[in-house]
Amino acid sequence: MEVHPRPWEALSDAEQQLTFEMFRELMVKGREVARAIGRSL
Q1: How would DSSP label each residue in 7-41?
Q2: Residue 17's beta-bridge partner residues?
Q3: What contacts 10, CB < 8 A, 6 or more positions away?
Q4: Residue 3 DSSP SS3
């Protein structure tokens, strides 16, 4: 997983890059899932 401030300008794998906001949202959701199964990130 790669994070880039402007994925559309990334030199490689632009379509697989996350923006900082997308990564933040992913981590929020990931923490919720982890908490639900008794784990942490």
Answers
A1: GGG-SS-GGGEE-HHHHHHHHHHHHHHHHHTT---
A2: 2
A3: 2, 4, 17
A4: strand
Residue that has been written with the tokens 């639900």 in this structure: 36
Quick one: tokens of 25?
A: 């949202």
Tens of pLDDT, residue by residue over 1-41, are 899 999 888 888 888 899 999 999 999 999 999 999 999 98
pLDDT at 15: 85
pTM: 0.76
Between vectors from CA 36 to CA 41 and to CA 23, what angle results, nearest 5°? Answer: 45
Closest by Cα among 25, 4, 22, 21 to 13: 4
